[in-house]
Amino acid sequence: MISMEFLVASGIGFVTALGIYLLLRGRSYPVVLGLSLLGYAVNVFIFAMGRLWQSAPPILGSGAVCADPLPQALVLTAIVIGFATTGFVIELALRSRQEGGTDHVDGRRDAPEAPAAAEPRP
Amino acid sequence: MMSTLMNHLPVLVVLLPAFTAMTLLLLGDAGSDEHGGHGHARLQWARRIALGSGLLGLALAALAVQQASEGVLQVYRVGDWPAPYGIALVLDRLGALMLLLTALVALPALWYACGGWDGHGRHFHALFQFQLMGLNGAFVTGDLFNLFVFFEVLLIASYVLMAHGLGRERLRVGLQYVVLNLAASALFLVGVALIYAKTGTLNLADLALRVAEVQGPDAALLKAGALILLVVFGFKAALLPLAMWLPATYAASCAPVAALFAIMTKVGVYAILRVHGVVFGVGAGDSALVAEPLLLPLALGTSVLGVLGALAANTFQRLVAWLTVASVGTVLVALGLYQTAAWAAALYYLVNSTLVVAALFLLAELLAAQRGVAGARLEPASALAQPALLGLMMLLGAASAAGLPPLPGFIGKLMLLEAAGPHPWQVPVWCVVLGAGFLTLVGLARAGSILFWHVREDLPATASGASAKLLLPTLALLTATVAMSVFADPLQRYTQAAAEQLLEREAYARAVLGPQALSEPTTRPYRFEPPAQETRP
Question: What ipTM did this prediction achieve?
Fold first, then answer.
């Protein structure tokens, strides 16, 4: 039986790895995707830092057990901030592409493409 | 009235820029019409409101310093939630000093921006106030996660301010700046989560008590969290391997924004002092002094890298940006010595170097505007319109940056060298600090001789000098550095007291958590551990 901890930990690790790979790409779109994936992984990580619980409410009530509510509140804040910044970075990448004519993060020009095959004339 | 004001002082310094920014947003934007907003009535009003709020902020910060200098540690519980559960804002000597420094840099930068830059894009004044809100919040908060939130507030304002004025270069560098900062924010969250997992609290006062109780393998994870935070704060402060983003970013920003950004690296320094200097400092049990073996060598390297970059810079803006890196290196060297006297020197030098760097950024643009097509590039160009005035300003700034007596840069470095006396790393610290000062002088002398003396006779001299609207803010910043020299004695006593106050963990904990904090066993768990998983059939 695979434990829940193992599944969550390896899942976070896998998504982080994907995020870092995409973050290191040269075009702005994969970089933005990488940032989002990294954000997801970090959010689940914070969530897991309150320990993993089964059938425990995140609020003190009549029951004896209760899951730690604080990381859940932290995650909410982190999600909101992450969403806003992702929106902003997409807009910035689009503006940069418009002004610079390339979506390479270093502003490198694309190699001149081979001239497109002449359209067949009717 | 006055007592109400003083009671709410810690939250007022955050609320004032927040409400000013919202008012400015409601007022509407003047920078987007076809004339660039110049002379527009709305822009005039935005300037008045922003400057008025800046003056009020300066007054509040001065009140905070005055109160803190009497040794008062003011704690403000937001919403009156008891301390480790709710968010506490704390105003101590260090926080008050940083607030005053922020206001002192922000006001001239704002004044300078009112000379025309604010009309070159949208919502400049509102964003500037949001940035101030983030900065002030980061300096008063007593909670690690709240520090993250204020970091994000100041960063997201800085993303837009950095790209203010647009243009290809700004957008390209801006995208890199944003992506790097977002990655750093993700790391910040990982570090905070690790620390929470092992201590069950994020309140800085509570953390300082609990970190000492974490032992053995748990302390290893806690240290990992602390070192991840060192990476994040080191990135913001431009510590050695993470400093490369700074020169391009600061050199590409427009002058008032770059001047304001001079304080942003200091936020990283401040966070390192609070977290790694105090929480993970002396007396933190198994995790004590976790950053010490890294901080000093990296800071020395940062100083060397900064001055080498300054020597190699091809524009004056880049040179000043590299000097920012070098000054951060010097401040962090002092922090890395982990001694009260060295921390006092660090705070004194930090205030001085921030003011000088901000003034040099403004001066760089004044110079560039009078050099025709060459701009700020360090190459012979047409003669300046006001060589004597700008030359004197340059001399003053350069002498203070390089640490020549009697300017405050010298006093700060002298304090640092004295404090390093008994330390085992004394020789490298002395060599690097003195060598960096000398090379700074060489770099600035080279820049100055090119800018002022290598005049190309074939080009016509620039006719128009800088307007008083731009000159006065720059002069104000330089005057502030000279004033630091005049009032060196009270300032030194203040920074010494601030450094001593930082190490009084117990007084801090009592003030934030209440008088029972130390007598009660602090190991009470905030949460239950999940029961061992039942074996399934």
Answer: 0.88
